[in-house]
């Protein structure tokens, strides 16, 4: 009996968007209008690449970025939830699927000593170049029309489950915890026995409830959360059953 917990990162584990938080490092804590307006829907990763170039051009170094990123608050109750999962790792496999990047997630999890809670992190690969600039790449290529160009979370989840099956690991239930529009695609992939946990008042919850009135509602159960304590209460019930 093992459960798979799938977490989004921004606005789910942390209470902010890591990509917009980094702007605090910019001169006057803001980006020039031309750069801000250069974002095109579905091409966030390319936009962040330009933001990192701007920060690098303005002399923002790795240690300053790291200091800034590790001040992001965790979502209410999340520290308790991750502590609880860490104490029950024999029952839970735990992964992150996020449109952030490896550098940011690594910094934040390690600073709070939560990196051991997660078995794998699937996110856009990032690294500092020899000139000290942060660079970010697409996580993968995919053919899903619903998802941003760089990441289809359904594809990530499906490939992870296939790989686990090859290792002889199957899950009693998948619990998907997220907030954003790009979490809908993997939620649509969940089966009847699984559960989607959208954050209250965020895009994912709204999209799921719109679908509930349509011909193709989600198959899985849905439980809305506002504090990670709600998620922990559900997991405690799960392991009692």
From TrEMBL:
<dbReference type="GO" id="GO:0016791">
    <property type="term" value="F:phosphatase activity"/>
</dbReference>
<protein>
    <submittedName>
        <fullName>PHOP2 phosphatase</fullName>
    </submittedName>
</protein>
<comment type="similarity">
    <text>Belongs to the HAD-like hydrolase superfamily. PHOSPHO family.</text>
</comment>
<keyword id="KW-0479">Metal-binding</keyword>
<dbReference type="GO" id="GO:0046872">
    <property type="term" value="F:metal ion binding"/>
</dbReference>
<feature type="active site" description="Nucleophile">
    <location>
        <position position="8"/>
    </location>
</feature>
<dbReference type="Pfam" id="PF06888">
    <property type="entry name" value="Put_Phosphatase"/>
</dbReference>
<feature type="binding site">
    <location>
        <position position="19"/>
    </location>
    <ligand>
        <name>substrate</name>
    </ligand>
</feature>
<feature type="binding site">
    <location>
        <position position="99"/>
    </location>
    <ligand>
        <name>substrate</name>
    </ligand>
</feature>
<dbReference type="InterPro" id="IPR006384">
    <property type="entry name" value="HAD_hydro_PyrdxlP_Pase-like"/>
</dbReference>
<keyword id="KW-0460">Magnesium</keyword>
<keyword id="KW-0378">Hydrolase</keyword>
<dbReference type="InterPro" id="IPR036412">
    <property type="entry name" value="HAD-like_sf"/>
</dbReference>
<dbReference type="InterPro" id="IPR016965">
    <property type="entry name" value="Pase_PHOSPHO-typ"/>
</dbReference>
<feature type="binding site">
    <location>
        <position position="10"/>
    </location>
    <ligand>
        <name>Mg(2+)</name>
    </ligand>
</feature>
<feature type="binding site">
    <location>
        <position position="179"/>
    </location>
    <ligand>
        <name>Mg(2+)</name>
    </ligand>
</feature>
<feature type="binding site">
    <location>
        <position position="8"/>
    </location>
    <ligand>
        <name>Mg(2+)</name>
    </ligand>
</feature>
<dbReference type="InterPro" id="IPR023214">
    <property type="entry name" value="HAD_sf"/>
</dbReference>
<feature type="active site" description="Proton donor">
    <location>
        <position position="10"/>
    </location>
</feature>
């Amino acid at each position: 009996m093992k459960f798979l917990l799938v977490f989004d990162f921004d606005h789910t584990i942390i209470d902010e968007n890591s990509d917009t938080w980094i702007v605090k490092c910019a001169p006057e804590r803001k980006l020039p209008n031309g750069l801000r307006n250069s974002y095109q829907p579905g091409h966030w990763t390319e936009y962040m690449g330009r933001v990192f170039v701007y920060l690098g051009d303005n002399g923002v170094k790795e240690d300053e970025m790291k200091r800034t990123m590790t001040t992001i608050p965790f979502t209410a109750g999340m520290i308790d939830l991750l502590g609880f999962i860490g104490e029950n790792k024999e029952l839970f496999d735990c992964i992150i699927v996020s449109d952030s990047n490896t550098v940011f997630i690594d910094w934040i999890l390690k600073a709070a000593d939560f990196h051991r809670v997660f078995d794998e992190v699937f996110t856009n690969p990032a690294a500092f170049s020899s000139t000290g600039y942060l660079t970010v790449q697409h996580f993968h290529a995919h053919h899903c029309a619903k998802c941003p160009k760089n990441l289809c979370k359904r594809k990530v989840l499906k490939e992870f489950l296939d790989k686990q099956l090859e290792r002889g690991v199957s899950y009693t239930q998948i619990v998907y915890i997220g907030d954003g529009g790009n979490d809908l695609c993997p939620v649509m992939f969940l089966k009847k026995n699984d559960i989607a946990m959208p954050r209250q008042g965020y895009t994912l919850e709204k999209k799921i409830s719109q679908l509930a009135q349509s011909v193709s509602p989600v198959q899985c159960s849905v439980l809305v959360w506002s504090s990670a304590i709600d998620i922990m209460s559900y997991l405690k019930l799960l392991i009692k059953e």
